[in-house]
Each structure stands twice: as C-alpha cells, then as structure tokens.
Amino acid sequence: PPENASQKYLNTLDKVGAYVDRLNNLITELLDTSKIQSGKIELHNEPFKIEKTVRETVESLSMATPGYEIKISGSTAATIMGDELQISQVINNLISNAIKYSPGSNKVDVYVSKVGDFVKISVKDYGMGISPQDKEKIFERFYRARDIQKKFPGLGIGLYISYEIIVNHNGTLWVESDLGEGSTFSFTLPIMKDDGRRD
Questions:
Q1: What's the pLDDT at 114?
Q2: Where are any strands of DSSP class E within the chain?
Q3: 57 touches 91 (CB < 8 A)
Q4: What digits encode the pLDDT tens for the residues 2-28?
Q5: pLDDT at residue 164 is higher than 60
Q6: What does the alpha-carbon distance between residue 21 and residue 31 come to, in Å, rounded to a whole number?
Q7: Burial class (CB in 10 A: 0-12, 13-18, 19+), 199
Q8: Residues 75, 61, 101, 83, CA torsion sign
Q9: Residue 188 pairs with which residues in a beta bridge?
Q10: CA dihedral in degrees (6, 9, 11, 16; nearest 10)?
Q11: In 3D, which of 52, 62, 30 has the Cα closest to residue 162?
Q12: % of the chain with per-residue pLDDT over 90
C-alpha cells in the first residue's frame, strides 16, 4: 500500500533531519577553529562499528547527490573507540570534496579495509587531481589549491578540520594524487582492542 512507502520516506526524512541537526551543531563547534587548535573540542568517545558509519554516511550522501555513484568495496568488522559523528563528518567531507572536484565524472569509490591494528578508509575520485606543491599544503588551515579556488570559491576549512579530527583520534590522514588522474584521500584509525566483554 502507498502509505507504507510514504511512511518509509518520512522515517528516512526524520533520520536525515536528525543527522543534519547533529551535523550543524558539530559544524558550529568545529568552525571555532581555536577550539581545535587548543585541543578543546570535546570528543564523545564511544565504541562504534566503523563500516556501519561509512555505509550510513554514504547512504545519506547518495540521497543528497542522486547523479553520483558512490560505491563501497571491502569490509571490516572493526570497532573504533571515538566520536562517531566527527568521523562521519570526515567521511562526508572527503566524499563531498571528491564530488565537488570531479566535474565530468560521476563516480566515487570508497574502500574499507583492515591494515594491522588499524582500519583504513579511502575515498577515490576521478577528478582533476592535485599538483605536488599543492599536496604539501592541502591540510593547512584555510589553504585551498589555486585552481580549485578559482573554480569553487569557498571556505578551505574542511580538510584542515578533517585532518585535526583524525589526529585527535590517533589516526593519520593523507592524499595520493596525480594531476588529471584524480585523488585518493585515505585515513587510518586504531582498532579498539577486544577486551572480551563485547561481542
């Protein structure tokens, strides 16, 4: 019956609404970059399943950008101890950037894997790529690659914040890219040690 479909739609909408509210609160907090630099951003640390976070973030973004194919490959059952909303924000930022900076391409690949005691998430786009000199500076506060600045004016704060969030979680964020060949942004996070009390 049609009311089921609309009910499902409303439930999804509620979920997205709640997600957006939480995101807005987070962004407000994050935009106060002095908090980041002094390490005063509060981490709401709880165990969470990273793959579920990736899937939910991709799901929300897929709904928001219907023309794009965001594909997830790989899997991990790893549990991370950290602030799930902040990590979700990083994934969101990397995928949004991948979409924004690949005019002419409509796919983004997300890879999930386990590397030793870490989980590794990579976001690969097929866009314009980043020059070697820009690569070094890309995570600096308010820095944006020159060509990008011309094409997509805006606040270059996303990568800086993403970098700080990952560092605060004892992880690493880096980029591999060649001009004209697209870019792959990856980050690692330490996997929570199994203490035997959780399945």
A1: 95
A2: 46-49, 69-73, 79-82, 107-115, 118-125, 172-177, 183-190
A3: yes
A4: 557 677 666 766 666 666 666 666 666
A5: yes
A6: 15
A7: exposed
A8: negative
A9: 120, 172
A10: -160
A11: 30
A12: 37
| Tokens matching residue 125 | 């786009």
8 Å CB contact between 108 and 96: no
Question: What are the tens digits of pLDDT across the range 86-144?
Answer: 899 899 889 988 888 777 888 999 999 999 999 999 999 998 888 888 887 787 765 55
Q: What's the DSSP call for residue 11?
A: H
Instruction: Work out whether the CA dihedral 57, 59, 63, 66 comes out positive or negative.
Output: positive
Q: b/e string for 118-157 if b means 16 or more Cβ within 10 A? A: bbbbbbbbbbbbbeeebbeebbeeebbbeebeeeeeeebb
Q: Does the pLDDT of residue 49 top 70, yes or no?
A: yes
Size (the chain), residues: 199
